[in-house]
Structure to design on (443 residues):
């Protein structure tokens, strides 16, 4: 129940999987097909020109498939994720891993996709890195894209200050290479947990186990001693070299190019994979990438904002804001001071946010047209606009000060002013309109 193949069977039964049997190339063609689909269904490629592996994309490209991955309904996603974080539990360690069926020393045997014309090369975009925390001894797991250099080396993208980078810095300061493991092709609940930024010292794999109802099992690898999900399709173990870097640049979550960077180099010790392995590719900046990264944050915001301000009914990270930079908060407004406090709290809870809009409970926060309507009819710029300048923002935003990581932020109170006549804001309704079926009238 806890590996990628179980999930593929599930979405196949629900009609959310399409299979491509005709020959396709890893150079732009797979990326192009995935972009054309953009989340509407998952795609399994069974005939790849450059590799004997199969490949799947768009695994959780919709909220429906996201909810299927964690055994929830679409309306209960956040409750399930918040509960899994609170009740994280260690998975059972087993004596074998399915991926031990095959062993190699050639990373180029995998169908690593070249996605965009100006990227520095092909990238593994679904790779989750596992490392031991030097202070607590616990493991950490997190997403890190990897670009092949040769048969046994990758560059590995790390964000400064994040957990893997802190572990790497600690090892480097002690004159050591950092042993790590990499998985590709896991149950998407494991990916969702890996995308969540747990506190320092906490293991995201425990959250994954909770999401999977305690059914996840892990296997201890021979070289690194790290524990990875036993049903993983592809596993690499090796080390990040303390004294080598390699230049790379890539497309980020906003579908824009990041600047050129020199990143550390991963050296392969062993590559393991299952019989008939399935490689997972995530198209950067498209629906699966945005939901994988944004939905755990959306769950976090729903938990934290509702706890601090119970009048909050829903928080949504908007598609137009790439599920990362813009949030819309729906509230049952009780007094005029509510909105500004909620805006401030929302910015504090996710510092990458650039815009927060607060709306009333009769406005759907997931509907961009409805939110714009609230701004058009309930917002006055001289009274209801909050502007913050020179504050910490997202490193992804190309319009911000990239050196200082500073940006300007905007809070919008698009709620009904309590001092005004309430009838003036009431949305008019037509009685029994839901019972009218046009087919009975228009023939």
């Amino acid at each position: 129940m806890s590996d990628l193949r179980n999930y593929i069977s599930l979405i196949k039964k629900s009609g959310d999987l399409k299979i491509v049997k005709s020959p396709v190339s890893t150079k732009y063609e797979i990326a192009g097909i995935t972009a054309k689909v953009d989340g509407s269904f998952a795609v399994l490629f069974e005939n790849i020109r450059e590799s004997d592996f199969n490949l799947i994309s768009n695994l959780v490209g919709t909220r429906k498939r996201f909810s299927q991955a964690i055994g929830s309904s679409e309306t209960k996603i956040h409750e399930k994720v918040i509960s899994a974080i609170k009740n994280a539990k260690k998975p059972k360690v087993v004596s074998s891993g399915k991926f031990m069926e095959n062993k190699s020393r050639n990373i180029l045997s995998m169908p690593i996709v070249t996605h965009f014309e100006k990227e520095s090369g092909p990238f593994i975009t679904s790779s989750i890195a596992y490392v031991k925390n030097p202070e607590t001894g616990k493991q950490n797991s997190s997403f890190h894209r990897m670009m092949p250099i040769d048969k046994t080396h990758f560059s590995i993208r790390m964000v400064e200050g994040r957990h893997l980078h802190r572990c790497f810095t600690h090892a480097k300061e002690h004159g050591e290479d950092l042993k790590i493991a990499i998985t590709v092709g896991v149950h998407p609940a494991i990916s969702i947990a890996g995308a969540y930024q747990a506190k320092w010292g906490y293991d995201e794999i425990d959250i994954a186990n909770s999401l999977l109802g305690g059914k996840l099992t892990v296997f201890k690898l021979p070289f690194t001693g790290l524990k990875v999900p036993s049903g993983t399709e592809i596993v690499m173990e090796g080390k990040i070299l303390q004294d080598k870097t390699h230049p790379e640049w890539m497309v980020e979550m906003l579908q824009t190019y990041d600047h050129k960077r020199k990143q550390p180099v991963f050296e392969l010790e062993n590559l393991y994979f299952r019989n008939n392995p399935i490689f997972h590719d995530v198209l950067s900046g498209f629906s699966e990438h945005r939901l994988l990264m944004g939905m755990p944050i959306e769950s976090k915001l729903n938990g934290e904002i509702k706890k601090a301000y119970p009048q909050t009914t829903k928080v949504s990270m908007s598609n137009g804001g790439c599920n990362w930079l813009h949030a819309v908060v729906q509230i049952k407004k009780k007094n005029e001071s509510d909105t500004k406090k909620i805006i401030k709290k929302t910015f504090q809870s996710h510092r990458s946010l650039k815009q927060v809009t607060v709306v009333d409970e009769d406005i759907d926060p997931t509907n961009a047209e409805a939110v714009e309507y609230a701004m058009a009819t309930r917002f006055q710029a001289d009274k209801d606009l909050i502007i913050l300048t020179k504050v910490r923002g997202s490193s992804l935003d190309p319009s911000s000060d990239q050196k200082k990581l500073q940006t300007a932020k905007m809070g919008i109170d698009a709620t009904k002013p309590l001092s005004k006549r309430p009838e003036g804001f009431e949305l008019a309704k037509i009685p029994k309109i839901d019972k009218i079926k046009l087919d009975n009238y228009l023939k």
In short: The first helix runs from residue 4 to 13. Residues 99 and 274 are 4 Å apart (CA to CA). The longest strand covers residues 234-248. The two ends are 49 Å apart (CA to CA).
